[in-house]
Design brief:
One of its GO terms (cellular component) is cytosol. With 963 residues, the chain is α/β, with parallel strands linked by helices. It contains 38 helices and 22 strands. The strands form 4 sheets. It has an 8-stranded parallel beta sheet with strand order 9-8-10-7-11-13-6-15. A 7-stranded parallel beta sheet has the order 18-19-17-20-21-16-22, with helices on both faces. Strands 1-2-3-4-5 form a 5-stranded mixed beta sheet.
Length: 963
Amino acid sequence: MTFDNLVHRINELAETQRDRGTYFEYLARAYFQNEPTYQNEFKNVWMLADVPEEFGVPKVDLGVDLVAEKFTGELVAIQAKFYKHTIQKSNIDSFLGELGKDYYESGIIVASTDRWGKNAEKALADRSDVIRIGLSDLRNSQIDWTKFSFESPEVVTVKAKKGLRYYQKNAIDSALKHFRKNDRGQLIMAPGTGKTFTSLKIAEAMAREASKEQYTILYLVPSIQLLTQTLRGWNNDTEMTMSSMAVTSDRNASRGSVKQDESNITIKASDIGYPATTSSKKVIENYLELMTRPKKELLVVFGTYQSIDVLGEAQKDGFPEFDLIIADEAHRTTGAKALGDEASAFTKVHSDLNVKGTKRLYQTATPKLYGTDAKKKAEENSIIISSMDDESLYGSVFYRLGFGDAISHDILTDYKLMVLAVDETVVQKDMQKSLADSENGLNIDDVGRIIGVWNGMIKRESFSDKVSGEPMKRAIAFSRTIEDSKRLSQQFENVVNDYLNSDEGYSVNVRHVDGSMNALEKNEALDWLASDDIPEDSARILSNVRFLTEGIDVPNLDAIIFLSPRKSQVDIVQAVGRIIRKFEGKDYGYIILPIVVPEGATPESILDNNKTYDVIWQVLNALRSVDERFEATINKLELNKQKPKNIQVIGVGAAPDDPNFNDGYVKEPTVAYQTELELDWEAVEGAIYGKIVQKVGDRRYLEDWSKDVADIARRHIQGIEFTLEQNPDSKYAFEKFLQSLQHNINESIDQSQAIEMLAQHLITLPIFDALFGEYSFVKNNPVSSAMEQIVEELSQFGFEKEQKELQPFYDSVRLRAEGIDNAQAKQKIIITLYDKFFSTGFKSTTERLGIVFTPVEVVDFIVKSVDVVLRKHFSKTLASENVHILDPFTGTGTFITRTLHYLKSLMDSGEITFDDILISWSPSCFLNNSIPVFLVLRQPIWKHTTIWESIFERNSILRPVFM
């Protein structure tokens, strides 16, 4: 039985409101006695009638239903309200009056409704001694409500604590090793990988290693919302005894008022669900009271960054220096200030002058760095910058788990980007009812985006009635302003019904949330979104501006929707973090970007100079900044012929003929009309992909990569030289290898050239595997095999360690090269890489041998020109009998492979036949391995591989030629 079933059961079991209240009190008592956060706070929890006489508490019902005794001996009054209606001030007046009595130190109100009247809200806002708890807090507690019954309310089962995953263990080991020698360090982990839990286990491990009677920790967060989550999370999962304190500032932890372009939740201290203080005096009093009791292993102060001044004052009055300060969402602690100005609340964490701490751990998913230009400008203007690459402030990164790595290792769910290109012509033609309604406040772009969202969530394919999988059930939408968000929630269903000309079919319910709501309402909205009770053919969207980016844990969330450009890349990344949490049955999280394509737009002008499309480039750039896989996908877009699976461009036209078209039966659509966009969709789709490359791609991608490759090659050379110097046995093995090269290739090859050759082999092998992994030719090549043999022998003498340290780079190389789906693109990568590789990493070799690589486009021109000359002056073609093609100085094999492709194009056009090629071509026509100067390098392997790739390219009719 779920928690909600238990609440419904109260209504079934009880005949009177008094009885319903009693049953609800049983739930509340079970919660306070067994929820770890309160179990660590309360020594006893009684029904009012059961409070021991020694406390002198009157047993008259004046609003107090339960009483809890803290470990410090103080009493807490608890009122349990089982109401459906809005709670008014009159409903809590008597309870608040009781809190003024000497025997109660503070109070808690537990209510079954999240609706509070304005006067009731104000009454709580004026009290620092009252907290409130809603159904969401009980529903999402550590108590296993499926095993609870009103027949035996004393029997309560608590869920098991979380266990460490392998990568979290690695983070702990790295932290311990790092902090033994350093006072500051950074933990970078993607959203959804468990930073909060990992930092708890790091703190516990450091506490054990410190062997102190009590280890003191300060955990700082940017908002009260995150403070609440962290406090509960740590209490739920700690394996040590823990005393907790919550400290906030006397102003809102986010910002003051909620403006139309803001979204920060103005959570009051009363919504923390745990006693909090804003007073340094109270911090000291609580600390001194705790010191009179047996000390627990951990003393953890959970505070907002805005409370640092309170904590600093408390330390001046005797509160101890913290053994460890954890700065959560550490990207928020970056910033700039003029010399002499007071630091912001967020940057004060860096200095012991503000809050004293022995060690500082900074953790975030999105590290924020300032560029060289910004730093230079700041220095010129006497501006002090806090940037996360400043190790004097933040320390070095001791553990990093990025988006790409977390997804590749199946820690997080992969994501797909959906660009929904809505045809403006369709909106104008079919949506007149929505456009003509002067009351709804929607313009043509608003209506178009709603249509795009609906088509995206149902996974409808471009201009068809087909769908690609099960429709989505849950999404969070981000609007430009609160008014836009409210309009979306009010008009979404009406617009979709107008689009479908029906109220049947897949329906999407939208609710608006913003920072003016109390925490209980916000939590209930999230529970509504995450509910398993969503009807089969419907979905739910929570619409907001910004406040659902941080600290939202809805693992079954399917999608996030960006309806307008975003100002912050960090916000985008944090939002994406909401959809990549693992959940059973979820294969992907989706990022939905609906745009409206203007009437008359051509492939050439698509997405040009339109601010509404900025959201696409902002989201793509944000993803590139944190996910190397995504960056590689974008930069391979112009190389590959196939479209990427994780970036989908979907054309949205007229509504399906049948509103229930996604029920598995697809009828042939009745085509009433076809717009220009639909008719020209293939070209438009290609143009959008091209614009993505133009706007977001890195034109220096391969060149920069080549510099990386050259740097690693130099490290390999140094590693080999060091191994040979330190180990006589390795020197003997290498000399045998060198002698074999001199005997079989060229007597002039010396030791340095042989070492260079090995370094090139080591660095290019993973590239071969990524580009040509399906061909065993690379591994069977005799030159490659010989070099692999000597590398294995050197590994016995310590060289293997150097290679293991470079594994992350090898993974990066493989990521950038794999997935190229055509020979021409592979050839381009090889030429660019090798050209820059040699000119950067082996400058002397390049100058000595005169290495120059001809661009593919130039090669294609030469090949075609030769064929034209043969036709014009000799009445022959490149495929004619007795026309031989020789390439005695083959480098990367570009001339041979492009000639093969040119001949295939002639065959496809019917100008020559397959027999013509068979007669004219054999391996002896073009392969010449007798040039020793090139064999000193790595190029014979490049040459053979690229030519073989051209011959065996998938679906190539040339395949039988050399088999």
